[in-house]
């Protein structure tokens, strides 16, 4: 069944070449076909892990969205040179959050049951650190993005290892696994860019730096642990 899908895609692609189909139209049609490829069934354990990835990442991106909302609210007017920097990162978090919202709906994964806690806690963390100082807000970003970058790398390792009966990942494989891997890779890169931005804007000059960053890293680790399970 999967071999046929691959051949179908190759055939459609060859026809596009022959009739000079415009690139955007070609990609739209190819994506539609890929999305409707028969899905290779995941094992029960793989499905449980897959759902957990979507649940925790949706909660995490919701949290990130509210952290930046809190920072922006407190800092954007007082420190105009930070306005665009914060807005750019916040916009990316909004995009991450809405992507995981869509994945959650698409795969019928229930959200974390303590979502209101993530919303309030994240906003308080963003606004609270921003009220201390712009450097403290950046230290918060540095700590959060360090943990999230590592968390995404952990997930990529598992997805690439335990889902890598090759046919699940490549070619005729399972579109949903490829999709989540590509999404996480892209978001991981964005988070690491946020980490660099935080350092560039003096996160290391925050007082008290160690207390703030280590405290926030621990809060993030506990939140990840809880959101994966509850
Ligand atoms: Fe994010
Ligand atoms: Fe981020």
- Number of DSSP strands? 0
| Class derived from helix and strand content | mainly alpha
User: What does the largest sheet look like?
Assistant: none
Number of folding domains? 2
Rg, Cα atoms, Å: 20 Å
What is the terminal-to-terminal distance?
Answer: 37 Å
So what's the overall shape? globular
Q: Which residue ranges are poorly predicted, with pLDDT under 50 across at least 5 consecutive positions?
A: none
Mean pLDDT: 84
Q: What pattern of helices and strands is seen along the backbone?
A: HHHHHHHHH
Characteristics:
2 domains; 230 residues; 9 helices; mainly alpha; binds fe (ii) ion; 82% helix
Account of the 3D structure:
By secondary structure, the protein is mainly alpha-helical. It folds into 2 domains: 1-38; 42-229. Helix 3 (44-75) runs parallel beside helix 5 (115-132) and helix 3 (44-75) packs antiparallel against helix 6 (134-162). Helices cover 82% and strands 0% of the residues. The radius of gyration is 20 Å and the shape is globular. The chain has helices at residues 2-19, 23-35, 44-75, 80-107, 115-132, 134-162, 166-169, 175-200, 209-229. It binds fe (ii) ion (2 copies). One fe (ii) ion (FE2) binds at residues 64, 93, 145, 191, 194. One fe (ii) ion binds at residues 61, 64, 93, 96, 187, 191.
């Amino acid at each position: 069944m999967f071999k046929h899908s691959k051949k179908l895609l190759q055939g459609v692609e060859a026809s596009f070449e022959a009739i000079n189909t415009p690139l955007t139209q070609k990609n739209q049609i190819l994506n539609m076909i890929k999305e409707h490829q028969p899905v290779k069934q995941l094992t029960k354990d793989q499905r449980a892990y897959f759902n957990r990835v979507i649940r925790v990442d949706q909660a995490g991106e919701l949290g990130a969205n509210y952290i930046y909302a809190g920072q922006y609210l407190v800092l954007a007017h007082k420190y105009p040179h930070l306005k665009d920097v914060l807005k750019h990162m916040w916009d990316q978090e909004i995009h991450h959050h809405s992507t995981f919202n869509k994945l959650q709906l698409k795969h019928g994964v229930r959200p974390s049951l303590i979502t209101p806690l993530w919303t309030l806690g994240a906003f308080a963390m963003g606004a609270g650190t921003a009220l201390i100082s712009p450097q403290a807000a950046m230290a918060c970003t540095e700590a959060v993005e360090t943990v999230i970058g590592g968390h995404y790398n952990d997930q990529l390792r598992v997805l690439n290892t335990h889902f890598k009966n090759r046919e699940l990942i490549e070619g005729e494989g399972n579109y949903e696994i490829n999709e989540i891997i590509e999404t996480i890779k892209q978001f991981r890169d964005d988070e690491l860019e946020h980490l660099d931005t935080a350092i560039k804007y003096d996160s290391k000059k925050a007082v008290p730096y160690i207390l703030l960053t280590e405290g926030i890293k621990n809060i993030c680790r506990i939140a990840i642990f809880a959101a994966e399970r509850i």
